[in-house]
Amino acid sequence: MENFLTSKNSENIRRYTVIGSRRLSNYWWAFIILFGGIGFLLTGLSSYLGFNLLPYIHSENIIFFPQGLVMCFYGFLGLIFSFYLWLTIFWSVGCGFNEFNKEKGIVRIFRWGFPGKNRRIDLCYSIKDIEALRVELKEGLNPRRTIYIRVKGKKEIPLTGVGQPMQLEDIEKQASELAQFLQISLEGF
Hints:
Blueprint: E1 5-9, E2 13-18, H1 24-49, H2 64-91, E3 96-101, E4 106-112, E5 120-126, E6 130-138, E7 144-151, E8 157-158, H3 168-182, E9 185-187
Parallel strand pairs: 6-9
Antiparallel strand pairs: 1-2, 2-3, 3-4, 4-5, 6-7, 7-8
Transmembrane segments: 27-51, 63-87
Subcellular location: Plastid thylakoid membrane; Plastid, Chloroplast thylakoid membrane
Keywords: Chloroplast, Membrane, Photosynthesis, Plastid, Thylakoid, Transmembrane, Transmembrane helix
């Protein structure tokens, strides 16, 4: 239940936290790509300079052109991609919450985006405008298990985060509880 956690539950208010980019897998890949990029860059630079910047790499076996140059290129790409991942983690891109408040009669969907004028994505709708919930289940190489909310006159809005798909039982349970709480229909089963 990594993507769609319940953080506040009462009789009239439901609030679900969405983790976004601060998942364990993003930290893992940011570290791996950072160290891999540094390794490739230092190996390429070692072949150019003619001495070993890393004690376990023998640069005399690597000719700078073309192998060392290509390794420097891959090292820079790894560092750039790692930097991008660290920035998305630092900025909490995709993190937020879904709040369903019967007291105020609103549904609020909040997410953090990339820096700029649209950094805060804050959508508010009346509960009366909510038509249905839809669950999308796609299996295969790239499985997708997502809960969507359909608002009158708008496109469907995903409520679950991107990343590891939730367990089938968890998504069914959350979707049915939410549809029952909002007293709307549930589609897709």
